[in-house]
Amino acid sequence: xxxxxxxxxxxxxxxxxxxxxxxxxxxxxxxxxxxxxxxxxxxxxxxxxxxxxxxxxxxxxxxxxxxxxxxxxxxxxxxxxxxxxxxxxxxxxxxxxxxxxxxxxxxxxxxxxxxxxxxxxxxxxxxxxxxxxxxxxxxxxxxxxxxxxxxxxxxxxxxxxxxxxxxxxxxxxxxxxxxxxxxxxxxxxxxxxxxxxxxxxxxxxxxxxxxxxxxxxxxxxxxxxxxxxxxxxxxxxxxxxxxxxxxxxxxxxxxxxxxxxxxxxxxxxxxxxxxxxxxxxxxxxxxxxxxxxxxxxxxxxxxxxxxxxxxxxxxxxxxxxxxxxxxxxxxxxxxxxxxxxxxxxxxxxxxxxxxxxxxxxxxxxxxxxx
Length: 370
Prior knowledge:
The protein has 370 residues and is α+β, with helices and mostly antiparallel strands.
């Protein structure tokens, strides 16, 4: 790869930076989203910074063994964003790939196209491993990684720096030269049209703005009593759960949803689905309702909807639900959906002050779903 070459693929053009790109670079780098997730950018970002990037910084990236491309519209040649390689490790034939896109160009597949184009170009030049790092809350970038063929590999602890000097984890996404082309299949796909509904209740993904209702629900004594261990959650933990809900979904950890009353739009409760064993296709389900919505069959409807999605788009072959033996109301919900009592595992769960709790497990197979 050389600084003066042009790469055209996947709907974008990768080319050298030019003086006429200054205004568009400022437009992209001064944007609040870029400023939030690219902590190394000057703040505020000005034309002086853009000129320094074109004249000094981008050439230095090439000199250091990396790559720095302008991402341009193939028709107009106007700058849409940037993509590049950094932190090269020549003896391992690996590098880190990164990008940003101007606000007006987002949502058009520009970032994914640029990432795919540069990845393929780098692999053709001898690179064998590319790493893409994202902030845990930067879910648009995580979707780009998946669309560009990068697989979630884990978290790099304290790999990112805040502007105030603090540290945060970064999620690592990796693509190898021998990986198949195209998007990565997800364990937990998106909901169809973003919702599951039977026209009485609806399930939608948990979002950052749901912290108030989630804290109100999961700090209730009767809900806490059916958790293991039965300890009320901290407000900060609930807020973090809501902020990271989409990321947890994208990485295949857990699908967290709110249960909504369709008629009023009010939140009735929450539920969740996760894989317990990917190799065997087994998943686990959980749920909780606010007091005003209990006794109306809403939990049964929610579990039925979630189980249908689990056996369908999510591709699971078996579902389990663990309960404390005393939670008879939850047992009735599961049995109405078709779950069968399967095992009492004594002392399986942590209680308070070193005590242990029994776990009564229910299980459901696809042909048993009522």
